């Protein structure tokens, strides 16, 4: 696979062109997405039962979000009663500083990490390395990408864009005593051997969180590799990082959400490990002496404030929308230029980063609706994409408050004039007939290039006769009248 050019140095269109012109990437993604879609379809064989479960999952998430401030306060009180220390972070910078302060307080030099998309969001690794603390990714996909110095391209399987040949070369170059081999089991064992050393020597363990239970003050992590369990039990200090939206109200809410998450993500009835952490270790127990939770806002309260946009926060990070998206399937995740790619990233990233930095993402969709159909918690993704497109080109009225940072980032006077002219033309029969006749008569003057449109499409050319003219001609011919 060609070497990745740093994403920040390329525009969205440049990233799209780069990845569309990478046949190996496209073939690999097509095969991987077909496999994941097949796994999901085989795990949900009863559609009536699936729709009932989706409705339940959606109602659980909506209920939690409707009470979000109160549930977060309840969660904090329960966690503190259980001995877990809670930290609030408004921004990525603040979250990273909290983690850094904890690490420096303990004199930490190494940090072993279970899977955490929030730490990717905040670019925690880069922050730690600048301060002389060495983070080691323990999730196999994240570990591969750390060695390759790349970002994830999928939120569940971050290294899905890598072939076994890519990984074989990477391990040969970076792991001691690892010769080139394309045997997957041998490659995995080589990485695990190296990671076992890191688990035992790490000063701090850090993970993400899949769900937080306000009723019991519990942190829930699901995984298949065991790295999350090791990262939360071997080091003396465990830090969990997550977004504020991951809270659920009751412990009884977990079974349907876990069923939806695991079946939608990997086609499993349940993951190999489900970790529920409610306190640091107590007398005679194993586990960490300290547990910290960092709750991150980083723009999440922006969609929460809008009733329609709030549905974005229902997401349980299963990635089913990405696996079924015809755009993501052809591009992969790196083209989006954000931590969260695909359909869910196209509605979440504008809130986290602002529309100025993500103005093209809501348009990176065919609006086919596949994402909404497979979302386990029934997020109306296509509706939210249309809403973001609208907010991106809409000019605020006087004294109107923006619903998103970077509101109107794609607004241009030229486009406003074009759509205004189109509206006037198509609302006036006389103007429309005049335009259609003129366009047909002067079709030979049609330019071969039209900005934006002809970058990916053929040049539209008016027909010799309009549809109305052809119908008129047909009617005359049937009546025997002269044409």
Write the layout of secondary structure elements.
Blueprint lengths: L11 H9 L2 H21 L3 H20 L1 H14 L3 E5 L2 H14 L4 E4 L3 H6 L1 H7 L3 E4 L2 H9 L15 H11 L9 H18 L2 E4 L3 E3 L4 E6 L3 H7 L3 E7 L3 E2 L5 H13 L6 E5 L12 E7 L4 H4 L15 H5 L1 H6 L10 H12 L1 H4 L11 H5 L6 H13 L19 H14 L2 H13 L25 H13 L4
Parallel strand pairs: 1-10, 2-3, 2-4, 4-7, 5-8, 7-10
Antiparallel strand pairs: 5-6, 6-9
Helix pairs in contact: 2-12, 9-10, 16-19
Shape: elongated
Computed Rg: 26 Å
**Poorly predicted ranges (pLDDT <50, ≥5 residues)?**
1-7
Q: What does the main sheet amount to?
A: 6 strands, parallel
Distance between the termini: 62 Å
Oligomer: single chain
Helix content: 40-55%
Strand order of the largest sheet: 1-10-7-4-2-3
Mean pLDDT: 93
Question: Can you count the helices?
Answer: 22
Instruction: Provide the β-strand percentage band.
Output: 5-15%
Descriptive account of the structure:
Helix content is 49%, strand content 10%. The chain is elongated, with a radius of gyration of 26 Å. With 483 residues, it is α/β, with parallel strands linked by helices. The strands form two sheets. It has a six-stranded parallel sheet, sandwiched between helices. A four-stranded mixed sheet has the order 8-5-6-9. Strand 5 and strand 6 form a beta hairpin. The longest helix has 21 residues, at 23-43.
């Amino acid at each position: 696979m060609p070497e990745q050019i740093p994403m920040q140095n390329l525009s969205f269109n440049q990233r799209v062109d780069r990845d569309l012109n990478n046949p190996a990437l496209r073939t690999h993604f097509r095969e991987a997405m077909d496999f994941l879609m097949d796994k999901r379809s085989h795990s949900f064989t009863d559609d009536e039962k699936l729709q009932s479960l989706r409705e339940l999952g959606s109602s659980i998430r909506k209920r939690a979000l409707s009470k979000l401030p109160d549930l977060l306060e309840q969660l904090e009180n329960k966690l503190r009663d259980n001995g877990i220390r809670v930290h609030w972070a408004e921004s990525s910078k603040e979250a990273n500083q909290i983690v850094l302060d904890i690490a420096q307080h303990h004199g930490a030099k190494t940090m072993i990490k279970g899977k955490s998309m929030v730490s990717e969001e905040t670019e925690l690794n880069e922050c730690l390395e600048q301060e002389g603390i060495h983070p080691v990714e323990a999730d196999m996909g994240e570990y591969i990408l750390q060695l390759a110095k790349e970002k994830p391209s999928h939120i569940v399987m971050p290294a899905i864009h890598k072939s076994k040949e890519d990984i074989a070369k990477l391990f040969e170059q970076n792991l001691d005593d690892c010769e080139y081999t394309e045997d997957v089991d041998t490659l995995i064992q080589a990485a695990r051997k190296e990671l076992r050393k890191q688990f035992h020597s790490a000063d701090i363990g850090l993970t993400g969180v899949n769900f937080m239970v306000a009723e019991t003050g519990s942190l829930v992590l699901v995984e298949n590799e065991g790295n999350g369990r090791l990262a939360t039990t071997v080091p003396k200090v465990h830090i969990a990082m997550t977004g504020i939206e991951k809270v659920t109200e009751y412990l009884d809410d977990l079974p349907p959400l876990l069923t939806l998450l695991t079946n939608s993500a990997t086609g499993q009835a349940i993951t190999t490990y489900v970790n529920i952490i409610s306190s640091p270790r107590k007398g005679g127990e194993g586990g960490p002496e300290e547990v910290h939770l960092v709750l991150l806002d980083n723009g999440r309260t922006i969609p929460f404030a809008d009733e329609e946009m709030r549905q974005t926060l229902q997401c349980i990070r299963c990635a089913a929308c990405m696996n079924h998206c015809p755009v993501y399937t052809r591009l992969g995740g790196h083209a989006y230029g954000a931590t969260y790619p695909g359909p869910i990233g196209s509605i979440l990233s504008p809130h986290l980063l602002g529309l100025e930095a993500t103005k093209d993402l809501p348009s990176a969709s065919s609006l086919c609706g596949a994402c909404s159909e497979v979302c386990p918690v029934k997020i109306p993704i296509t509706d939210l994409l249309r809403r973001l497109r609208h907010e991106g080109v809409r000019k605020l009225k006087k004294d109107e408050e923006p619903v998103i940072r970077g509101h109107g980032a794609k607004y241009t006077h030229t486009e406003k004039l074009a759509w205004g002219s189109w509206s006037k033309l198509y609302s006036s029969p006389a103007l429309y007939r005049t335009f259609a006749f003129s366009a047909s008569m002067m079709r030979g003057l049609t330019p071969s290039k039209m900005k934006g449109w002809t970058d990916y499409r053929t040049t539209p050319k008016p027909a010799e006769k309009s549809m109305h003219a052809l119908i008129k001609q047909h009617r005359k011919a049937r009546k025997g009248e002269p044409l």
